[in-house]
Write a structure and sequence with these properties.
The complex is a heterodimer of chains A (about 200) and B (about 325). Chain A is mainly α and about 200 residues long. Chain A is about 80% helix and about 0% strand. The chains are: A mainly alpha (about 200), B alpha+beta (about 325). Chains A and B meet through helix 2, helix 3 and helix 5 of A and helix 2, helix 3 and helix 4 of B. Bound molecules: protoporphyrin IX containing FE (HEM).
């Protein structure tokens, strides 16, 4: 197998292991007194951390100077979307038992839910344009532009988390620190890139 | 002997057995057998705890008997909100040792003619003035889950009346232990400590209002607010303050911890009301711990008949 193929497959077992562990604990009644809440929360956390991992690929690739890392984005992004869908499924199917009036009321009346839904809906076009054939038909520029949506998605997901916290903000602060770091790297990189371009333009003039 | 005669709990408020008996084990039952077939059944993951605390001497059944099935000792001790011991639901059990309950003293002071300081033993041993009895109450958390809990305790009103509240007493303020050296949630200042709660005097004197010192016939485990806590079953759980060190009778309405932290989310009265939503979730239904389907939430958590008279004539918006 080529190294990039290995790299591309690697996230699947690693990121799906927590799902397996969650399933085993759920089936064995080992998730405490309120297993449904535990399932929703763990799936939400997995989705958010996978999202941050997806966002970490480009900065890491630049800092490590190893371009092949870019192939990690597709599996990590798809896994994020998968966990987010399971998270919604656990809320709708387990917590609400598909009781639609309550689900509809929650999604429209509770801002934290609306933000989560917005994040999830924005993920769908990214997942849909993930297959190589679709991406090729879209064209590289349009694809890149579309996939910049990952940034507002991250912001929405983080706000979703903040909004549901009662008093202990520490986990969300850690997530915020990581996101700030990743965005900071992009900013630094973007400024340097832009300076280079300006310098080159002046040189050619 | 009780103060007043307890009204019967209306039969319609007691959920028909069979309807809601879908215990948690049924949720995963299908998956569990599948896993067992695959050799992945790990029952050791979910070992039940055996209660170990000192056995109390108490009367059973006490007032307000209930025929609802109590939640398991494991569920009651393993799932609670007790921010002094951490913000996660299982943190209080994990950090239970950080709470020192012996020696303990409970000071009752303020607008009473006979202030007292009670030691641990005064609270735990049967006392002629406040004999212990079992009270099986529903507990409805503001987070839309509920349990049925067999407390052991005595009515707060009985104790307060003996101390003779003055005519200036209007409210009763309760404070929890303050021990930031040991309690992990106080070390990290999750809330402004000490935790404080309060009731109107007539609420505090109501025969349903309980000072609990035990659970399932034994002394309270630390994670449930040992050695003495309040239980006000018609109000959201955060009113039922744990590990009380001070009770003060006062004239002015005092501040209360969660109400000050987020007034739009946690009211002073905080009576269970299915018609008034929390901003982030509906209060119209609740999950009884151990059940799959949510059940409707009852006004005053099903104690309407007993407590509605306390609020007669009050503006409902002032009651939140
Ligand atoms: C329709 C979409 C969504 C719905 C209905 C939804 C609903 C929920 C609910 C009900 C909770 C639990 C709240 C509680 O127990 O108090 C929760 C927690 C959470 N959700 Fe979502 N969510 C959605 C989308 C997302 C997305 C897209 C992400 C991240 C990428 C996410 C990340 C989280 C996180 C991190 C938590 C907190 C877990 C914890 O408390 O540790 N959610 N969500």
């Amino acid at each position: 197998m080529k190294p990039t193929t290995v790299l591309q497959l690697l996230p699947w077992p690693i990121a799906l292991a927590p799902l397996g562990w969650l399933g085993i604990r759920f089936a064995n009644g080992a998730l405490g007194a309120n297993p449904i809440e535990a399932v929703i929360r763990e799936l939400g956390q997995s989705a958010l951390w996978l999202l941050l991992a997806t966002l970490a690929v480009s900065p890491l690739r630049r800092r490590l100077g190893w371009p092949p890392l870019a192939v990690l984005r597709r599996p990590l992004g798809l896994l994020t979307c998968g966990y987010a869908l399971l998270h919604l499924g656990a809320y709708g199917g387990l917590d609400q038992a598909f009781f639609w009036p309550a689900i509809a009321a929650d999604l429209t009346k509770r801002p934290f839910m609306t933000l989560g839904l917005a994040a999830l809906l924005l993920m769908l076009p990214l997942a849909a344009t993930s297959p190589r054939a679709v991406a090729r038909r879209l064209g590289a520029t349009a694809w890149r532009r579309l996939h910049r949506l990952v940034h507002p998605i991250a912001l929405l997901a983080l706000l979703h988390h903040y909004w549901l916290i009662k008093a202990d903000y520490r986990p969300a602060l850690v997530e915020t620190a990581v996101l700030t770091l990743l965005w900071g790297e992009r900013l630094v990189h973007g400024v340097a890139h832009w300076r280079n371009r300006v310098a080159r333009m002046e040189f050619t003039r | 002997m009780l103060i007043g005669t307890p009204a019967e709990i209306p039969a319609r408020d007691i959920t028909p057995e069979g309807v809601y008996r879908q215990r948690r084990r049924f949720i995963g039952a299908g998956v569990a057998s599948l896993l067992a077939a695959l050799g992945l059944g790990l029952p050791s993951l979910a070992l039940a705890r055996t209660p170990t605390g000192r056995i109390l001497d108490y009367r059973k059944p006490g007032a307000f008997p209930s025929d609802e099935e109590s939640n398991s000792y494991d569920d009651i001790t393993g799932y609670s909100n007790f921010y002094e011991l951490g913000s996660g639901k299982s943190d209080p059990q994990a950090n239970a040792k950080a709470l020192q309950t012996d020696p303990w003293s409970l000071v009752i002071e303020g607008e009473v003619k006979r202030p007292v300081t009670l030691a641990l033993e005064d609270l735990l041993s049967p006392h002629a003035a406040h004999p212990l009895e079992e009270r099986i109450y529903r507990l409805r958390c503001v987070e839309a889950w509920s349990m049925v809990i067999p407390w052991v305790g005595f009515p707060l009103g009985r104790l307060l009346k003996r101390l003779e509240p003055t005519s200036r007493a209007r409210y009763v303020v309760f404070q929890s232990i303050l021990d930031p050296e040991r309690l992990p949630g106080q070390k990290s200042r999750l809330l402004p400590w000490p935790y404080q709660e309060a009731l109107r005097l007539d609420e505090a004197l109501h025969p349903l209002t309980l000072l609990a010192v035990g659970l399932y016939g034994r002394v309270l485990p630390n994670e449930n607010g040992a050695p003495i806590r309040l239980v006000v079953p018609w109000k959201y759980g955060f009113k039922s303050i744990k590990s009380i060190v001070r009770i003060r009778l006062v004239t002015e309405r005092p501040h209360t911890t969660w109400n000050r932290h987020a007034p739009q989310e946690y009211g002073f009265f905080a009576n269970v009301d299915p018609a008034v939503d929390h901003p982030r979730w509906s209060q119209s239904r609740e999950r009884r711990i151990g059940e799959f389907l949510k059940r409707p939430t009852l006004p005053y958590n099903g104690y309407e008949q007993q407590v509605a008279p306390l609020y007669r004539g009050m503006d409902p918006t002032a009651l939140r």
